Amino acid sequence: MFDLPPDHQGIKDEAARLADSLRPIAARADEADRVDADVAAALRESGLCGLTVPLRHGGRHERVDPLAVTVARESLCAVSAHLDSLFALQGIGGHALAVSGNEALAAEWLPRVARLDAIAGLALTEPDAGSDLKNIGTRVRAKGGELVVSGHKTFISNGADADFFTVLCREDEGHSLVLVPAGLPGVTVRPSPQIMAPHVLGDIEFADVAVPESHRLSAPGGGFAPVLATLSTFRVSVAGAAVGLAQAALDEAVRHTREREQFGRPLIGIGAVGQMLALSWTEIEMARSLTYRAAWQAGRDARAALHLSSMAKVGATETAGRVVDRSVQAMGRFGLVRGSVIERLYRTARPMRVYEGGTEVILDSLAKTLAKGEA
Ligand SMILES: Cc1cc2nc3c(=O)[nH]c(=O)nc-3n(C[C@H](O)[C@H](O)[C@H](O)COP(=O)(O)OP(=O)(O)OC[C@H]3O[C@@H](n4cnc5c(N)ncnc54)[C@H](O)[C@@H]3O)c2cc1C
């Protein structure tokens, strides 16, 4: 695949139109620690969240199409990380329910997820367990026909605004995945520490929260299978977001360095400055090519393409980090101004290398694949 198929180009353009309409409020939304009502209304109105849910539950494609989600995120994250996150989390939080949840439960929640009438959250991380998810302490136990969840999750996207959480718990010797509606007695959400690129984040306390047995999203002890299904479908979309962000940062730097003159000529015509931007352009095109290829393959067999999705995630987020840094450098003091577009992109790029699989964790697992001779 060397060009996007027309349907995917159409989705990319559709997302770009939505993002463009929100450009005037993007800076405000990207500083928010709760969901921005105007962004949510526009995203709801656009119908784009239908990309994150299968057709039978109100979505657009028979199965979630990773390339469609990826190109949508490329357009959204170029303008607003808040908009991008709100879109992506509908899939990341709801996918386990779509692939392995009880049909009645899926029918209850997923059409609302597709319409953005319900906001999803995925609760894996805990104070003492980030990359090492097998070490979580949150527990679920079956009791009198119900499931009882207790524990503490932290840094959960959509925090206080989520309507339900897909929660990874320990169950006996294994791990299980359980859907917990946010409004139940025993669920308390507090703000997480805010990060350099503000994000809607919450710490969730589950104090003996009882849900029906039908809220299981995995077989008892089989909780990592739907988590892996979610990662293998959506990890590559982080790469799409990173490519969009990197392109926006390059565009900012090109615009500035074409207009600003030093030593009697535009900055971009001064070799070292122009070359920095040319290198960024080259790296973005490489990242985009790998990202599209990985997303295309993920649409055929997400598990089989996980190594490519992982490479795309590392490659594109590390590229975005280098591109925003060079763009700030090329813009000199103007690149450092608080509240400027480039300063926001610079901050937004940083967490991408940590969440949904830190660079080192992903490289470690790719290295293991190489060592086994499975590449
Ligand atoms: C903006 C944002 C949104 C988030 N949203 C969510 C969410 O919705 N739901 C959720 O559950 N979590 C969420 N998180 C948490 C995120 O998933 C974790 O930050 C991530 O898993 C890394 O865990 P950690 O921060 O505890 O880092 P640690 O696990 O403490 O790792 C620290 C460093 O060590 C490296 N490292 C760790 N283990 C290894 C290893 N075995 N090999 C090589 N290197 C290693 C890591 O790459 C990293 O560089 C979010 C985080 C952020 C920043």
From TrEMBL:
Domain of life according to the entry: Bacteria
Pfam families per UniProt: Acyl-CoA_dh_1, Acyl-CoA_dh_M, Acyl-CoA_dh_N
E.C. numbers: 1.3.8.7
Assigned keywords, A-Z: FAD, Flavoprotein, Oxidoreductase
Acyl-CoA oxidase/dehydrogenase middle domain location: 122-208
Cofactors named for this entry: FAD
Gene Ontology biological process terms in this record: fatty acid beta-oxidation using acyl-CoA dehydrogenase
GO molecular function: flavin adenine dinucleotide binding; medium-chain fatty acyl-CoA dehydrogenase activity
Top-level EC class: oxidoreductase
Domain called Acyl-CoA dehydrogenase/oxidase N-terminal: residue spans: 6-115
Keyword Oxidoreductase set for record: yes
UniProt name for this protein: Acyl-CoA dehydrogenase
